[in-house]
Amino acid sequence: MHRRDMLKSTAGMAGAVTLAPMDFARAADGGAQGDSPAAPLSRTIKGELPTGAPDFVYVPVEVPRGVREIAVSYGYDRPEVPEGTPGNALDIGVFDPRGTDPRGGAPRTDGFRGWSGGFRTEFTISAERATPGYLPGPVGPGTWHIVLGPYTVAPQGMRYELTVTLTPGRPGRTPIPVHPSERARGRGRAWYRGDCHLHTVHSDGRRTPAEVATAARRAGLDFIVSTEHNTTSGHAAWEGLFGDDLLVLCGEEVTTRNGHYLALGTDPGTFVDWRYRARDDAYERWVRRIHRAGGLVVPAHPNCPYVGCQWKFGYEGADAIELWNGPWTPDDELALAAWDNMLVERGRDWLPALGCSDAHSEGQDVGLPQTVVHADDLTRRDVLAGIRAGRSYLAESSRISLELSASDERGGHATIGGRLRTAPTADVTVRLAVDGAPEGAVARLLTDQGELLSGPAATGLEWRTTASLASYVRAEVRHPGGEGQLPGAMAAMTNPVWLDAAPPR
């Protein structure tokens, strides 16, 4: 199907079109009645998308009664392109008839049945089971919508082929999903280590949930968050894998064309739509949805250089920022500099920093880095509260522990994420203790003026200042050996301790 086959722009959805329906008539009805199932029914369409194609192309599929399973496969060409020019990349997903709008337009989110992006070339859905990334359930009659997402299109255009196969028969029984517990056996008020950005085979990861859980325990983590791209299918994939020693939270990596963000710790089954750009005035609505579901909004890898990854939505409504993503890179250095400027600009409305592995496969370590959260207990509610308050530091492994505090001559005291309210000129003592630092690591204390003290991490640091000179103090532990004047790679860092200048009593 070519441009002439695109019926209409999708109402309320910039950059989307709907194609002519793929109709299976009523041939499946007989297969649900007799003892011998009818043969599967297949339809195939071919089409071409030009450079500048809409973000999403919807293919309506008219599914008759009596269908047990729907199977979808697709492919597209990958012509050679000049160096530095994006080639073809085509994503795919599906919505069922519950999301059909009688007025036409994009399918509503209540019909979401799965998304695999460009990671899979085929998927199946039935009542009993579904391909990872998709949700099991009856294949009900009505208009289903296959979603094609031309992520990038080569200058030559993109030729694609899509096949839908319906298998008639009686539907089976859909299993009741088992979601993770909201609490694990904690240590009361303590520091808990977690990885808030992980992928499995339920999106574009290579590991199974079992393999991720094993890796998390091996890394010394207390909690992890399931954050598959644009799908909730991973929420029910942890049965038998969470326990007293590992808290598993539900979430999603919302992968838009103008940046990715994490929905952390949402109610199980909470779906967050991704079909918009910053210009579409939709992000704020989904921020509210995440918050109503008890979760946090965290822009992910905001300075990632890849297509569609850089963050364009601003930070209104966000609860934290994923500043450190995987092994330390120049992208993270840029994110750190922007965040440090934000501390000065936003003041009391600051956003805490997170460190997450974004691990997809072997060779990407779960827990590198990790966010270490001071929480009242190892529960969903307490961990999210600690993250939101900034009571956390980031570390490349569980071998490293940090303590950063500020105290004044009147006995006031504050730690990471806290505020020391003190007289403007009162002496404030800042102490940093580091345990498990890499050999030769350098510790640094930084304020709104920049680095004001550094030294060997193994011995820790002590520094005196006043609230009139420093509005906050944060700490970094760096590996030795940065190039030129650049510091070495990050080994650990803290969120700030704030110094609030109070008028004399």
TrEMBL record:
Residues 194-258 form the Polymerase/histidinol phosphatase N-terminal domain. It comes from the Bacteria. InterPro entries: PHP_domain (IPR052018), Pol/His_phosphatase_N (IPR003141), Pol/histidinol_Pase-like (IPR016195). GO terms for molecular function: 5'-3' DNA exonuclease activity; 5'-3' RNA exonuclease activity. PANTHER family: EXONUCLEASE (PTHR42924), POLYMERASE_HISTIDINOL PHOSPHATASE N-TERMINAL DOMAIN-CONTAINING PROTEIN (PTHR42924:SF3). NCBIfam families: CehA_McbA_metalo. This is CehA/McbA family metallohydrolase. It comes from Streptomyces tardus.
